[in-house]
Amino acid sequence: MQGQAYSRLGSFGGSAGTPSPPPPPSPARGGGRRTPGKGASSARGSHEAAAASAAAAAAGWGAAARRAAWALLAALLRRQAVFLFAPLLYVAAMLLYMGSLPLDVVPRIITRSAPGSVYRSPQLYARLRADMDADNSTDALATVWRQTYKGGAWRPCISNVTNSLPESNGYIYVEANGGLNQQRTSICNAVAIAGFLNATLIIPNFHFHSIWKDPSKFSDIYDEDHFVKRLQNDVRIVDKAPDFIMERFGHNITNVFNFKIKAWSPIKYYKDVVLPKLVEERFIRISPFANRLSFDAPPVVQRLRCLANFEALKFANPIASLSETLISRMRAKSAESNGKYIAVHLRFEEDMVAFSCCVYDGGDEEKREMDTAREIGWKGKFTKRGRVIRPGVIRMNGKCPLTPLEVGLMLRGMGFNNKTAIFLASGKIYRSEKTMAPLLEMFPLLQTKETLASDEELAPFKDFSSRMAAIDYSVCAYSEVFVTTQGGNFPHFLMGHRRYLYGGHSKTIKPDKRRLAILFDNPRIGWKSLKRHLLNMRAHSDAKGVEMKRPNESIYTFPCPDCMCRVNRTAHSKPIHAR
Q1: Rounded distance between C-alpha atoms, residue 123 and residue 127, angstroms
Q2: Cα dihedral 23, 29, 35, 40 sign
């Protein structure tokens, strides 16, 4: 037994030369687990071997996939093709997504029109009318024009000349095309060019236009004797070319050499090109002639333009006499404001609305009428292939003519109450019975030349658009406030004439129509907020009314102070004498 004990001791402890087996596991580490038997140990070994084999295989496949991915990415980067594959992958994903949507369900897309792109003024008027009628205490005529001219002593660029005229270089005949004020531009430019070239000007001929359809001659609209007399020290003017000149051309004006001059040509062109031909032929004509001289011209040319426009051109006695009568009647109807009245130039005739391509609230009927008017007035101009008309963009850019309703909203917002007398200068208003009703509700004292004058008084002028426009021009010129609602020659000439009459101040309200489009299209704006914006707009017009002439602006709109029109000693500063 002792040997057996030693034998057990040796088998557990071992000798120094023989390695002994590891000690049994501690109960604390073993968790009290029983040592598995021989069969369980064998089974666990086989499972561990299988798992190790599977893990090795998975690791091999993962490594292979990573190597393949890196190889593919390296190849793509080397060829920079990744930038081509990325959009294709995005499109493929979107197609897969869209293919997964059911075909019987259509997504709802909500679109909102841009602010100021839709005509919603009638809805605004209906919503604000009660507040507007309750706010009728202000009187803008009592507070308007706080600004004064700040450019020093106002001296228009007109000075009298007593020098005798040198021998003429020849005769110039021009055809003035367009309406009243476009013809006026032609007349004044013709005077300036004839004076500069030292030529004799034949009284301009008015070209009959298919739109205005007015056969009036110069003497039907202007006082011809006054025109010739006022310019006698500056330009020779005759009513026709002498017979000895006309004999050379068979007494046929079409045989006379005609210059086709580009619009806004500089005065240098007339000196270098027109003058030699004038001296050679002794008689030339220029047709058409509207806007054929640049605004930027030497002082001697600008002075002649001013002299012709503001002094020499007086309306013929029948027009002037009726105009004075209407001005007196207008002042009588505005007795509550000491004879002061507003003049509004409204451009809402059918042809103006059609040309603008704007959309209002007339629906399909309006569209048919406007399409017809455009085709009659401008055949094919608006239906050319590739032409895109965007009414919303036109309105947002402030290019749409203001309706009578919008004019009323604007003026009431600017502080003019319903007792303000208004003279409306306009042609035949489009759908006047419907469109004029809101304006008359807001301003019941509104007048036109047709309401101020009797049928008998208007009869000599009624079939002549230029003569009717001349009456409007005269009544507007002497108003306390002139309101322009659309661009054009009429307001530009009138603003300049009013500056000439009122010591440099045009006394004109020229609204910001882009801003108006946004204000009138705002469904949440209240009356007080609208009025605040419009009063600021009026104040801005007041401040702009005293501006001096800027470069390349019309001398007819900005009659220069004396400091702008001093004759300098540069080239082209003196008229050209006979050769």
Answers
A1: 6
A2: negative
